[in-house]
Structures are given as C-alpha cells and as structure tokens.
Amino acid sequence: MLNIALIVGSTRPNRFADKPKDWIVEGAKARTDFTLEVLDLRDFKLPFFEEPLPPAFAKGVFTNPAAKAWGARIATADGFIALTPEYHHAMSAVLKNAFESAYNEWMNKPIAFVGYGGVGAARAVENGRTVAIELQMAPIQRAVHIGLEPFLGVIREGRTLESYDHLNQARTALFDQLMWWAKALKAARAATGG
Ligand SMILES: Cc1cc2nc3c(=O)[nH]c(=O)nc-3n(C[C@H](O)[C@H](O)[C@H](O)COP(=O)(O)O)c2cc1C
To answer: How many domains does the chain have?
Structure first.
C-alpha cells in the first residue's frame, strides 16, 4: 500500500478548497492501492522561507523547526496531489512556500495537481508543474481542472462536485496515473538508494 499526501493549498477563511479536498478524500476511499493523508497547510504554520542558505547549497537541511516538521511529513509520502487555487495566474503563495520549505523529501516522487477557478486553474497547474520539475519531482499529465461551471455550480446552486461525471472521471484517471508513477519511482528509489 502506497502513501499519497494531499496538500491543501489555500489557508484563507471561507476557502473553496474544502469542497475539492473532501471530494478527493471521498474518491480515495474506494481505492485499495493507496492511503491518502491530508496535509492541510493551515496546520503547519510555515514561515516564509528564511533559511540562511538556499536548499540546494544546504544539501536540503533546514534549520527552521516548522520546516523540519513539514519535511518529515513530506518524507513519508510516495507521491502527492497538490490542491491549488489560482491566485493571479499562479499557484497560491502558501503552496509555493510549502514547496520551498522542503527539498530532499520531494525528490524522485510523482505529483499531480487538482486546480479550481475561472479556467480550472490551468495556469496555476502549469506553474506547479514547472516548480515540481525544479524540485526533481515527476509531475504527471493527468490533472483535474474544476472550471467555472462546476465552481459556480457548487457555490451558487449547492451542487456537489460528485454530481459532475467529467470531474469524477478525471479524478479516477489522475489516481490511476499517479499510482503508476508512484510504484515505478518507489522501486527506482529503492534500487538506487533514493
Ligand atoms: C488573491 C486572489 C487572486 C485570484 N486570482 C485568480 C486568478 O488568477 N484566476 C482565477 O481563476 N481566479 C482567481 N481568483 C479567484 C479564486 O479562484 C477564488 O477566490 C477561489 O475561491 C480561491 O480559492 P480558495 O477559496 O480555496 O482560496 C483569485 C482569488 C484571490 C483571493
């Protein structure tokens, strides 16, 4: 059984993020190939990056206790689902800071993105993928883009994300592809010592 971490990338009060978070958790209950752990950035109180050295120069060693605690949780995951809003055509600042607050622990692991907003957070997801590459991760092709229609359907009409078939199908495809990469990269890490 593999461990997948769902990172909740909005911390603001009244966030929409709880709807897709619950919907991803619900979808994962049907899976027998991984367990899903929710890492809510509200719970970690990460400072804005303030290490004396860039992570690559420090060999991924962090001094800040909150960053160390965050890295310890990232270390236990075999893969990630990052849930991101789109703020000014990019991922949220808290999510970007969370990426910056660990280093070695991300390496050689797959990551998938679930985004929501006017254009399904397409730009935030692309932004997340390039950041993930720089952290030596493997961002996957499958993603869930919760576009304007379901976004407003949930907010204004009280619909559930579960009621949108195309989103449920995208969620399954994301889980399947993430697991392919998580298994492959776990074996590769074991074979190469990391
Ligand atoms: C600072 C800020 C910037 C935003 N920029 C965008 C944007 O570039 N594209 C977009 O589709 N929505 C944008 N929005 C609207 C968000 O999609 C919407 O507020 C969403 O609910 C944010 O996610 P959250 O509620 O989980 O924090 C922005 C919202 C905020 C607060």
So the answer is: 1
